[in-house]
Design goal:
7-stranded mixed β-sheet; 222 residues; alpha/beta; two-stranded antiparallel sheet
């Protein structure tokens, strides 16, 4: 499988191809934090994987789902745009739905999932208030949700979540977020001395004091 971008430059056709490896690396090989490992054993709540473009978020989510898939009996649904890595079912049942092909959009897909007996939901992109509200709602009804978002810091993602909504609704959303959030993991891929790239992460674990600050919108104190 390949990730392919096609464009024109000065009148010439340009192709950019990246081969997607079939190898599933362990958490240790990827350099993921202990908090990420703990995400795999959570029963319910919201886990956010953040970072800028090309920071390896898709690879991290793949590692999380693969670990759950081989160790637990769960019903997992992923919503992706597009599907990059194929995850065959093992102990778990893994259903991968491609936005624009298998279902119209994230909003429609999440509304459908609310009526399904799903244990784990993976949302490949959160870029609207409706998607975010559905993600929080699903996490608040006893399901485990993994969502990827753009952002270089955990507090900037919290601020973005708040600003998705009009002022009159922000308090309600932050209260729900404080109740459901398990943690936020931000990652960057930096050049490694000697070649290649290395992962660095920022981990925000939603402890009781953190949840209280989220509900009060006091992100600067985190």
């Amino acid at each position: 499988r390949f990730r392919i971008h096609i464009s024109y430059s000065r009148g010439f056709l340009v192709l950019s191809l990246r081969q997607l490896s079939n190898e599933v690396k362990t958490f240790e090989e990827l350099g993921l934090s202990q908090m990420i490992k703990n995400f795999t054993t959570a029963e319910q709540g919201l886990c956010i994987i953040g970072g800028p473009f090309d920071s390896g978020r898709t690879t991290t989510v793949r590692a999380i789902i693969s670990e759950i898939n081989k160790t637990q009996e769960k019903y997992i649904v992923t919503l992706e745009e597009p599907i990059e890595y194929i995850i065959p079912s093992d102990k778990s049942i893994v259903v991968q739905r491609e936005i624009g092909k298998d279902i119209k959009d994230f909003e429609t897909a999440l509304e459908a999932i609310k009526d399904e007996d799903v244990d784990i939901v993976v949302v490949g992109s959160v870029k609207s208030a409706q998607v975010l509200e559905s993600v929080i709602d699903i996490a608040n009804t006893g399901r485990l949700v993994f969502a990827t978002m753009d952002g270089r810091y955990a507090t900037s993602i919290l601020g973005e979540i708040k600003n998705f909504f009009p002022e009159e609704k922000q308090t309600q959303i932050l209260n729900l977020l404080g109740d459901t959030l398990i943690g936020i993991s931000i990652q960057l891929l930096l050049p490694r001395v000697g070649g290649g790239r290395i992962l660095i992460t920022e981990s925000l674990l939603a402890t009781h004091p953190i949840k209280a600050l989220i509900k009060e919108a006091k992100f600067s104190q985190i």
